[in-house]
Amino acid sequence: MHELSIAQSILDILKNEAVTNGYDSIDSVTVEAGEMTGIVPASLELCFEIAAKDTVAKGSSIEIVMLPITASCNDCEKDFDIVGRAFECPHCESTSFKVTGGNELRIVEIEVPDKTEGAITV
Ligand SMILES: [Zn+2]
């Protein structure tokens, strides 16, 4: 039920935005999620659709953009994306690196019938 609680967090933000800015409805929301969050896009889409019923976001669509897990090598100092289970630097094969991204979860865009909102962190 990980995705359901995330869908509800997103909806809470949308409801607040709607009240603050006087929106009557929302067309779509775009969310960026790092791979480390473990979000399954199809599952989050479904949970959002269910949770959005009877809210200002009823009938809106959600677009989920998955971001890779990024790391910085401690040996050659290059940045790289961690793909699958290859936990080593693709440049020098070092297994000593620090994870620098992949846990992001943020709303990057809210589209309403008349205008577009900017980025909001969930
Ligand atoms: Zn390296």
Q: What amount of the residues lies in strands? A: 25-35%
CATH architecture: 2-Layer Sandwich
The largest pleated sheet is described as: 5 strands, mixed
Number of helices: 2
- Give the N-to-C terminal Cα separation: 17 Å
Order of helices and strands: HEHEEEEEEE
User: In terms of structural class, how would the helical and strand content be classed?
Assistant: alpha+beta
Bound molecules: zinc ion
Q: Which class in CATH terms?
A: Alpha Beta
State the share of residues found in helices, binned by percent.
25-40%
CATH topology: hypothetical protein PF0899 fold
Number of strands: 8
Spatial shape: elongated
Domain unit count = 1
Mean pLDDT: 92
Tags for this model:
2 helices; elongated; three-stranded antiparallel β-sheet; hypothetical protein PF0899 fold; binds zinc ion; five-stranded mixed β-sheet; single chain
Overview of this structure, please?
Strands 1, 2, 6, 7 and 8 form a five-stranded mixed β-sheet that branches. This protein has a three-stranded antiparallel β-sheet with strand order 4-3-5, with no helix packed on it. It is 25% helix and 32% strand. It has helices at residues 2-21, 41-51, and strands at 28-34, 61-67, 69-73, 79-82, 97-101, 105-111, 116-117, 120-121. It has one domain: hypothetical protein PF0899 fold (2-Layer Sandwich). It has two helices and eight strands, in the order αβαβββββββ. With 122 residues, the protein is α+β, with helices and mostly antiparallel strands. The site of zinc ion has 8 residues, from loops.
